[in-house]
Amino acid sequence: MRLFFDETVPTDVNELASLLSLPISSGEWKRLRKKAFEFMKKVWNGKIAIRALLEISNVCRRNCYYCGMRRDNKSLERFRFSEDKIIEVVVRSPYSTAVIQAAEDSWLTCDRVANILREIRKRRPDIAITLSLGEQTEDTYKAWKVAGADRYLLKFETFDDELFKHYHPEFEGVPSRKEALLILKKLGYQTGTGFLIGLPGQDMKDFARGILWIAEHKFEMIAHGPFLPAAGTPLGDYEPDWDWMLEMCMKLLILSRLAVPWAGIPATTAVYTRYGFDALVELVRCGANVAMQNFTSSEHGGKYYIYPDKKSITLEVFSKVAEEFDLKVSTERMDMFKPDNVDQWLNAAAE
Ligand code: SF4
């Protein structure tokens, strides 16, 4: 098993943590970034993808410390789309991937979501359906896959079990999240995971262990976003080290691309929200190849409140990013399976 498609990236936790401590301006990171970008360009022949993001409920039964949609945030106005409304917004998705995202809303039962998926499939057989609906049972994941879902996003946020339990008091911990991710892969989902970068208490070994695990299991989607404190949460007053966080987003992105060259790796909305257009360009330079355009935020006035003042990366914005690198933005579904000729094209990329 090749963990990284670059033989200089350490596979020992301590050594990888040391590499992560070097500044992004160092020669080592410049070289790795160049290679990550070349790999990304090869994946879809000079194309990067835009997906449609559809937020369907901000009602949450959980109480994660960092999230503005936590149950105890009583100042947040809640919304939930009806079944018909969910079907309608997905069916009219202008892009060939619809990412259906919700907080952990008990109303979104196994049967209800499966019925919704079947109806969407009837009317839009062409699109890839990505679900981001939290931790569920294996039977539920299976039912949703059979009903038509293609992809599933479930981030672990931090790979340190104690820290995970601290920030997610109602979840079992990292082992159970890892198990869920492996079940999703086994069921045939293109599966996505990643870090929330900048939670107080994370260290380089946490990041190194998580990246090595991603490299081992070759997740098809890898998303690392910065932690943006939200009012109404226990971490609302926390002041992150903004420069460090952006650097970590870039380094983890580079390592993720070198671990899984064919993965969909987003230039995240959170980075765009906090750091703006130039940071989006930097993420693509590090190997990001996906963005998500939000098609529902205007309908519920920013109430999908994981963090404040969320912006949307539009097709126009992402096309401007693409122009910087002579890339094209595609709205096609662009599945993320390992290419048969992976060695051939990686060798070509390295030449
Ligand atoms: S992170 Fe997810 S599960 Fe946790 S409070 Fe926010 S929406 Fe709910």
How would you sum up this structure, described in words?
It contains 14 helices and 10 strands. The chain is α/β, with parallel strands linked by helices. It has a single domain, classed as Aldolase class I (TIM Barrel, Alpha-Beta Barrel). The strands form 2 sheets. Strands 1, 2, 3, 4, 5, 7, 9 and 10 form an 8-stranded parallel β-sheet that branches. It has a two-stranded parallel sheet with strand order 6-8. β2 (97-102), α4 (110-123) and β3 form a beta-alpha-beta unit. The radius of gyration is 19 Å and the shape is globular. It binds iron/sulfur cluster. Residues 60, 62, 64, 67, 69-70, 103-104, 134 line the site of iron/sulfur cluster.
Strand content: 5-15%
Supply the CATH class.
Alpha Beta
Summed over residues and divided by their number, the pLDDT gives a mean of: 94
Shape descriptor reads globular
Named once each, the bound ligands are: iron/sulfur cluster
Q: How many E strands?
A: 10
Kindly report the name of the CATH homologous superfamily. Aldolase class I
Low-pLDDT residue intervals, each spanning 5 or more residues: none
Radius of gyration: 19 Å
Annotation field: number of helices? 14
N-to-C order of helices and strands: HHEHEHEHEHHEEHEEHHHEHHEH
The assigned structural class equals alpha/beta
